[in-house]
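User: quick one, fold this
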Amino acid sequence: MKNLKSFCNSLAACFICLLNLSACNKISEVSLKQKAVIPTAASNNITATGTGISDYIFNENAVLAAGYTKVFEDNFEADLTKWNVWTGGAFNNELQYYQAANLQLLNGNLIITAKKETVTGATTPFDATPKTFTYTSGRIECKTNISASSLSPKMRMVARIKLAAGYGMWTAFWSYGDPWPTQGEIDYLEARGQEPFNYQTNYFYGRATNRNLVKNQTGFITSTVSLTDCYHVYEMIWSQNSLTSLLDGAVVETKTGSYVPNLFGKTERVALNLAVGGNFFSNFNASQIITGSMYVDFVKVFKSN
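Assistant:
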């Protein structure tokens, strides 16, 4: 869920930013990001198969034994005080209004539920112009910033998630900084609810506000088991020269291409969200939307030398 996220065939993005990096620890007006339309294929993109394991149990002890130190954790047992809650519409031609009412803590899980309901609210958190929405959902952004840098050369972001099922559901676990994309964006997981065996990874970077330089770096991951029927663990290891994705404890892809080193030293925040429709979908038909829920067991962040 990208504080803060259209391209069809060329993977070029257009974004609006309002503030600067000083607001990194809250939902910032600079993050008016419009997420890119991802094509189904491109010559430099990565296609991989992951051996998914239903209801996979994350081995934290193994990560600690490998030299990592845990710097953030939320098991969603008490409240959402470690997160900022997005209130308002978003971008990317998405249909939902984000609000706290669609966030629920139950049995140690965060449940983000998309609902078909008509509400009127702010066009975005940064534009109070009233707008009528036909769906609602939820988005949170971590108050703790992360950065792979000389002080913490490796950052490892981990979440145990059951993806939302249903046509038009867009589950996301990611991080980004302001002004976009000068601080970069790393998409650990993005998935379409009508494709239960698939998810994607990506990253963005640019030297000027709203000008993404990264092209054809999407990772298309296919799991051997459904990602919407049970929990799976999604990880991203961010280091100076690589972005390594893991599914259920196994590496599924590594990005070392264009501009990955430029992300090193940048400051981002982790986001979780469930969008409804938008530019992530090709040939989208809103009449086919089936709402669903995204379940998050935990989010953990580790650092290592």
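User: anything notable?
Assistant: Confidence is low (pLDDT under 50) at residues 1-43.
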